[in-house]
Write a structure and sequence with these properties.
339 residues; alpha/beta; 8-stranded mixed sheet; 4-stranded antiparallel sheet; 14 strands; 29% helix; binds adenosine-5'-diphosphate; binds iron/sulfur cluster; binds magnesium ion
């Protein structure tokens, strides 16, 4: 399958907005604290004005990474590492300061609409509430601001009073975008914004995200396994597998010439576009195996990797430099001239 990638290169002068360093998240399990972190030493940067995509199949730790950045993890979660947003260390902020960051500086579109939309209230009510909280507007001013945000995301005014169940998937997603944008944040995190949508609605949301980025100068962090969407929107891509970053680099290179076997296999799993493909789709990677079947030694991908060598089962690979990023694989020459 040919993937058309965004033509926008990451700027060499890029200024970091969000910098996550060595993030580790361990969640409580039924038997106390789980032994294996679900996010394990993850580092990445979102620059001002760019679109970063984090990709990987279900269970890779993508949503938990976003929840950790927003400090919205389940009770009992243990977090280490650094989350620097605009020069402030989010892990050191108290709840009051965090509430001001959430919505006003970072907007999050949740993966699950039921987390963000209460079925008892209309779309307009949700956005008005978000505007009230984030911008301290009240009454008529808040309602007008809510209408304005909804207009920006293409949500028709006539549906202001519609309840979530009365909306199509695409309109629900627009309402969620409006909630996330109500506080005029600098960074928008969109977790699987198109996964639940049909092809047409998904295309419209993609176009809307691209437009919002250019019109508002938004920095965008998209989490998805919709690789065609990632190719269209992203400047850079981070690939996660079993809680770790296994590859990162410019979108146009990672999606055309992946350096890591997992990225390659992920791309081969894409369904054929237009019903025609010469690719072999036997190597399907639907969901990461449960944590207890991810090996504790060696490369985490080794049990599924077609290129695995004996050494892969013994040695945990570190990220090695490629010409324009990094990849966690012993087959990548340590010199960095893999491309
Ligand atoms: N609330 C939770 N409690 C316990 N484990 C969780 C919870 N949410 C996610 N997990 C586990 O954390 C891992 C990463 O999940 P997640 O970040 O949601 O993956 P992704 O978004 O990449 O599909 C998975 O193994 C998942 O089962
Ligand atoms: S280190 Fe070995 S098992 Fe892991 S991705 Fe590379 S070749 Fe495959
Ligand atoms: Mg997720």
């Amino acid at each position: 399958m040919t993937i058309e990638t965004s033509a926008v290169p990451a700027s060499a002068q890029a200024v970091p907005l969000l910098r996550v360093r060595d993030l580790r998240v361990t969640l409580p399990s039924a038997m106390g604290v789980a032994a294996v972190p679900v996010v394990d030493g993850v580092s990445f940067v979102v620059h001002r004005g760019e679109t970063l995509a984090i990709v990987g199949e279900s269970g890779a730790g993508k949503s938990i990474t976003a929840a950790a950045v927003m400090q919205l993890l389940p009770d009992g979660a243990r977090v280490t590492g650094s989350i620097d947003f605009n020069g402030r260390e989010l892990t050191q902020l108290d709840e009051r300061a965090l509430q001001s960051v959430r919505g006003r500086e970072i907007g999050l579109v949740f993966q699950d609409p039921s987390t963000a939309l209460n079925p008892m209230y209309s779309a307009g009510w949700h956005v008005t509430e978000a505007v009230t909280l984030a911008r301290a507007l009240k009454g008529k001013a808040a309602k007008e601001a809510a209408h304005a945000v909804l207009l920006q995301v293409g949500f028709p005014s006539a549906r202001f009073h519609a309840y979530p169940h009365e909306l199509s998937g695409g309109m629900r997603q627009r309402a969620m975008l409006a909630i996330a944008l109500a506080g005029e944040p600098q960074l928008l995190i969109a977790d699987e914004p198109t996964t639940a949508l049909d092809v047409i609605a998904s295309g419209r949301i993609r176009a809307l995200l691209a437009e919002l980025r250019h019109q508002r100068g938004l920095s965008l962090w998209v989490i998805s396994h919709d690789l065609p969407m990632v190719a269209e929107l992203a400047d850079r891509v981070v690939v996660m597998y079993a809680g770790e970053v296994v590859e990162h680099g410019p979108a146009h290179r990672v999606l055309r010439a992946p350096a890591h076997p997992y990225t390659r296999d992920l791309l081969e799993c894409l369904p054929p576009m237009g019903g025609h493909s010469t690719r072999d789709h036997r190597h399907r990677l639907p969901v990461i195996p449960p944590a207890d079947s991810v090996p504790s030694e060696g490369c985490r991908y080794a049990p599924r990797c077609r290129d695995a060598l004996a050494l892969c089962h013994a040695e945990h690979p570190t990220l090695r430099p490629t010409a324009d990023g990094e990849a966690r694989c012993i087959l990548v020459p340590a010199t960095g001239d893999a491309q």
